[in-house]
Amino acid sequence: MSFEVISLVILIILLSLFAIWISSAFFGAPFQPTSDKALKLMIELSGLEKLPKNKKTKLADLGSGNGKIIIAFAKLNPNVEAHGFEINPLLAWISGMRIKKNGLEKRAFVHTKNYWKQNFKDFDIITSFQINYAMPGLEKKLQKELKQKSKVISNTWKFYHWKPKEKISYGLGDVMLYVKE
Fold first, then answer.
1. What are the beta bridge partners of residue 176?
2. How many domains would you assign to the chain?
3. pLDDT at 26
4. What is the rounded CA–CA span in Å between residue 60 and residue 173?
5. How far apart are CA 164 and CA 180, in angstroms?
6. Distance CA 92, CA 133 (A)
7. Other CB atoms within 10 Å distance of the CB of residue 90
8. Residue 61 and residue 111: Cα distance in Å, rounded?
9. Exposed end of the chain (fewer CB within 10 Å): N or C?
């Protein structure tokens, strides 16, 4: 491959990464993908690996980014219906492409939507990797909307008044499990 072709490929990759980064200024918080270690802990805290394969579970990932979490949960159990809520249309499009590539169109869905405008009363599990300033309002919203026994799994950021049922520390922070009482 010639130097020009390699340079063009590198330029396209850099411009794509810049477009994702700059679009966060217009469409919400900056995109930071969940680490593989945090995702593994989120799956562990969800308890989905231990659930019977015939129990239907509805999951929402708030600010779903590139779809990594909804894809992982949809692959984990065929009865998981995973919904990602992503305000950034570019990231939502990338998620949709990844869902299609994994053949999960019937179990994983991405919505180009502000999750603040979504009611979560029908969801069993909520996953979140938010930013500190969003947590007080998110805590109030979820406490109001979620049904009893719904789980909230938060990567890194804590709720101020809701005490976690379980917390697992890893190199970059904590993953916490909250249960609606």
1. 154, 167
2. 1
3. 54
4. 22
5. 10
6. 23
7. 18
8. 10
9. N
In a domain, 62, yes or no: yes
The per-residue pLDDT for range 49-87, each reduced to its tens digit, is: 887 767 899 999 999 999 999 999 999 988 999 999 999
Residues whose CB is less than 8 angstroms from the CB of residue 52 and which lie 6 or more positions away in sequence, other chains included: none
Three-state DSSP at 109 gives strand
| 20 domain residue, yes or no | no
Q: What is the pTM of this model?
A: 0.83
Kindly give the residue spans of alpha helices, DSSP state H, lying in 80-157: 89-101, 135-145
Domain enclosing residue 81, as ranges: 29-179
Dist. CA 98–CA 143, nearest whole Å: 31
Residue showing tokens 């930071």? 32
Structure tokens at 150: 């719904």
**Shortest CA distance to 71 belongs to which of 50, 47, 42, 51?**
42
Per-residue pLDDT, 131: 79
